[in-house]
Amino acid sequence: MTDTVEDVELPYDDSASQQDKLEALEEQLSTLEEENEEMRDRLLDANAENNKYQQKLERLSHENKKLKQSPLFIATVQELTDEGAVIKQHGNNQEALTEVTDELRATLEPGSRVAVNNSLSVVRQLDDEADVRARVMEVDDSPDVGYEDIGGLDDQLREVRETVELPMKDPGLFETVGINPPSGVLLHGPPGTGKTLMAKAVASQTDASFIKMAGSELVHKFIGEGAKLVRDLFQVARDHEPAVVFIDEIDAIASKRTDSKTSGDAEVQRTMMQLLSEMDGFDERGDIRIIAATNRFDMLDRAILRPGRFDRLIEVPHPNVGGREKIFRIHTRAMNVADSVDFGELAADTGDLSGADVKAICTEAGMFAIRDDRTEVRMQDFQSAREKLDQDSEPAAATDVSRTFA
Amino acid sequence: MQGQNQQQAYDRGITIFSPDGRLYQVEYAREAVKRGTASIGVRTPEGVVLVVDKQTRSPLLEGSSVEKLHKIDDHVGAASAGHVADARQLVDFARQQSQVERVRYDEPIGVRTLTKSVTDHIQQYTQVGGARPFGVALLIAGVEGGEPRLFETDPSGTSNEWKAVAIGSNRGDIQEFLEDEYDAGLSVDDGIDLALRALNEGREDALSGDGVGVGIVDADTGTYRELAADESQSYIDDIEDAADDSDDDDDEE
């Protein structure tokens, strides 16, 4: 470096000796060298920092670009050939022959789910998961219902437990006797008699995975979707053996097959057929128990009622007097009830009412007490509630119709 | 609901068969019959008994104006179930036919002949457009050549002869009861007793003399007559006494 600095402040007095001047200069040189070193270090640091930020910038702008890009399509690999992979897009079902990188190719197999971009080349492989809708049906939090919350249905409950619990608790018993445990129960009966309640109790009391769904959830807009959901549902169940599948309001999909030409009906029927074959078809069902509930037993297709699918058809009737009394006690457990309330009398007084009606009476009775500014529910409240409900449910007078007939 | 769509197209016209050979309007007319209260006929060697349920909806209604039993001719009576006004039309037709027979041949009409002409009339309303079938069934009871006869007509125009039969609401249970209890050698009193017990079957409230109508065609005299309310009541009392007695027997055992 030939830079010359004019007017440098010298670290010595002009009057000092040569020796002193030299020492001072040397001292200055070493300080400057140290400083230089330090500055170089800082430069390096700054450079590194710069690099880091540069990279971050690059990454962010890349990400930004990616976000602006159009999303990937989902497709299923149909076949792997020498020329590439045949994929079928979900939704529109278009098939295409496309390129696959060797790296991806090693992991792909027919049936894998993949993501493809706009030009239909395979970008990455996706988890081969069952339909999300099927997965969310698994019940993780057990409902807060126990067997003791069910009033009156002792025989029915016993049959359900025999079917669902016993094979899990004591599978050896069935082996010894030499029979296959019953695999499915169908609960049928009028509305409000506790069919779903029983299923809830089973869900909370067994250790098995419990998968619930409503029949109507299986009805879909596009052909084949309902059937796919049924398939996925049973796949989820098989993955979580032992499992209990509960289908509420099964009449939504399992009604009698007719020659109806409406395509909607036909699709619902196809969904049912998938259900039939999953329940007792060619493939082994595994350790899966099925509980279904309906209040339109007469509407169900005969094929679904045959043994092997639903081995037990359990009628859940309106409760009898004893059952109603029990239900009254269950629903008033948390209520502040006066000692004078006679549940036996109430039960005898409420013929033909369902469990849900009894519950409604209890709630109504509580409302009467509140209206009266009391915290204690008395017999009178229950009677008023019953009368109120009677009025609500009384059918419209049929006298005008009967006038025509004799 | 499934199944109804396809049906709907075929129940619009009375003259149109469904692909499986049914006439839906006629089947609906049978439902009208079920809306009527029960009528029961029992044939015995001594005569034919008709018992009808004419329970009134209001205590202010005159029981005698409830038309369930009809006199067709001296020797023929009928009980109806279903659409009252339709029944009146058929009864008028039957009365007219029996009078025509008397004028034309100077003899009382045969019960079978009368039934056939009534059912022929009913049948026309299942085959002609622009009309509806009769929403009523009749039990036609009479004496023909000293022999008691009991016929039933149906909204389709079919007629059947019966030993004992029920029409109207709760028909199935009553018919079952009759099938279990009927005996070919019954007297007229036994016949009334049987029919009343059958009517009592599956009823919630008790029978009363005002609430039932009893018509008898006697084979000996060859005449039709209706019992008064107090006569019916005495039969009902007999049944109740018998029931009480058997209850007492049960208690003693």
| Total count of strands of chain A | 11
Can you tell me the CATH architecture of the largest domain in chain A? 3-Layer(aba) Sandwich
The CATH superfamily name of the largest domain in chain A is: P-loop containing nucleotide triphosphate hydrolases
Strand content of chain A: 5-15%
Q: What is the multimeric organization of the chains shown?
A: heterodimer
Span of the ends, CA to CA of chain B: 54 Å
Largest sheet of chain A: 6 strands, mixed
**Total separate domains of chain A:** 3
CA radius of gyration of chain B: 19 Å
CATH class of chain B: Alpha Beta
State the order of secondary-structure elements of chain B, H for helix, E for strand.
Answer: HHEEEEHHEEEEHHEEH
Helix content of chain B: 40-55%
Number of domains of chain B: 1
Shape of chain A: elongated
Distance between the termini of chain A: 128 Å
The dominant shape of chain B is globular
- The SS-based structural class of chain B is alpha+beta
Biggest interface between chains? A-B, 14 and 21 residues
Query: What structural category arises from helix and sheet content of chain A?
Result: alpha/beta
Poorly predicted regions of chain A: none
- Provide the CATH topology of chain B: Glutamine Phosphoribosylpyrophosphate, subunit 1, domain 1
Region (Docks into pockets in the proteasome alpha-ring to cause gate opening) (chain A): 404-406
Keywords (chain A): ATP-binding, Chaperone, Coiled coil, Cytoplasm, Nucleotide-binding, Proteasome
Protein name (chain A): Proteasome-activating nucleotidase 1
InterPro entries (chain A): 26S_Proteasome_ATPase, AAA+_ATPase, AAA_lid_3, ATPase_AAA_core, ATPase_AAA_CS, NA-bd_OB-fold, Nucleotidase_PAN, P-loop_NTPase
